[in-house]
Specification:
With about 550 residues, the protein is α/β, with parallel strands linked by helices. It contains 13 helices and 25 strands. The longest helix has 17 residues. Bound molecules: adenosine-5'-triphosphate and magnesium ion.
Amino acid sequence: MSEETKSLNFIEQIIEEDLKSGKYTEIVTRFPPEPNGYLHIGHAKSIVLNFGLSQKYGGTTNLRFDDTNPIVEDIEYVESIMNDIHWLGYDWGGKEHYASDYFDQLYEFAQKLIKKGLAYVDDSTIEEIKEMRGTPTKPGIESPYRNRSVEENLDLFERMKNGEFEDGSKVLRAKIDMASPNMHLRDPIMYRIKNAFHHRTEDKWKIYPMYDFAHGQSDAIEQITHSICTLEFETHRPLYNWFIDKLEIFPSRQIEFARLNLNYTIMSKRKLLQLVEEEIVEGWNDPRMPTISGMRRRGYTPEAIRNFCNRIGVAKRENIVDVALLEFSVREHLNKIALRRMVVTEPVKLIITNYPDGQTEWFDIDNNPEDENAGTRKVPFSKEVYIEKSDFMIDPPKKFFRLGPGRSVRLKNAYKVTCDDYKLDDEGNVKEIYCTYHPNSKSGQPDTSGIKVKSTIHWVNVADAVPIQIRLYDRLFNDEAPDGHKDKDFMHFINHDSLKILDGYGEVNMKDATMEDKFQFLRMGYFTMDFESTADELVFNRTVTLKDAWAKSRGKK
Ligand code: ATP
Ligand code: MG
């Protein structure tokens, strides 16, 4: 479906109404990551949605780091997040925002609420506060500190800021309604004392705002018109609006949508961090990780990720998307752009006994039959070539159409050959295969050889073969919903067989490969070069297989 024919989703409907009614002439959205981990495919959905809306309707999208929790946040994460958003193809107009930039203003907002008699300092411990909050069916109890005077609250709050009190000894709370059916309105905490070093404000602050007080107020300060967040914040919305109302600030509108869930995939940063820390994976950018950096290293393209995000759309109800749809989007794009190359992953030498010693022929082969503009490349052919071990059988069954004693195949884009003999090594593995080639079966010319073949196999010229390490990845979890089990932790479902390494050879052109190139290795799948490549051995990650589980399951192919 093209962009134009797609019907509007519910967020686009809201925006179009707001533009039509003249409420806004330009929209401002934001992407507000907490810099406590790398971005994952779920964040990509939010990025594509937020930046996509401001592109479509005119306006801007702010990048705002939600850096209100100094303990878990880190500059490494800030940098990786910016890098990933740029790579996805989006820009936030040069200047990134930080919730910490607003700490002074948030402090003044809090004073304003105190002065209005709408906030108070509570000396209760966190446990006592929890206790007094009640349950959804039982109203809470008012704190004994709830009715402090404005003066006392202003004084205590200032002294909290100045570092006069221990961590956890006091909090600032909004004075709303301890009996509200909405638990978030039962005098929520606005500020807590934390004597912690912050990566940007350093040791200036001894108090830090809670998410609910920082987030909405930051939206208002930046005049965000549509503040899009995931469904779990729906119950926070009355509080979001209460602060806007009482502070008399810019009325950003919070809109919730269903987060992206993918089967076979973990998407919580905390759990992804656990995989990194326990060295289940090599790092946040391990090609098996659902992180943007992992997917980039694996060979996914920004186009494919954006297409995927647009394809799944936005919904108001939680659902689980099949990871095969993501792989389909990747395959779909790579099929258009990937350069075809011949690579043999488990090489066996094939010797053409009747081919002249020392002769080399160069064949022109299409780089990509799907793309006329991709041109051709020259591939050398001579007396000795490598073929795939699995393309030869000593005693092949009837259904096996490739090579065996007395059988013929076509060597892709070259000649037909017939197997005469083979040699085994000491362990009984096939070491060499001896063939006769048929000169008048040359690819692209009239074939008068009279030889019938049932298959074509790929090969690599021995003399100039390029050593290549191939990394094949499988899913990191062997359960559809690794974090959906009550009795078992997600770590229980790790697939310990998710990486397979093979040493093979590629055609001579592989020498010129760069990290930006995308390849299709014939019959093996789509590949991209890894940064661990060395001069002695290039390393290639398999991005996806050629097999299309998604299209098959829908009867498309
Ligand atoms: P996680 O739960 O994975 O740690 P988070 O929501 O705590 O993620 P944030 O850094 O707060 O991570 O998220 C930044 C933005 O990305 C938020 O607006 C959030 O709603 C959005 N987001 C996070 N995960 C998803 C997801 N799975 N699908 C869609 N949007 C998401
Ligand atoms: Mg969060």
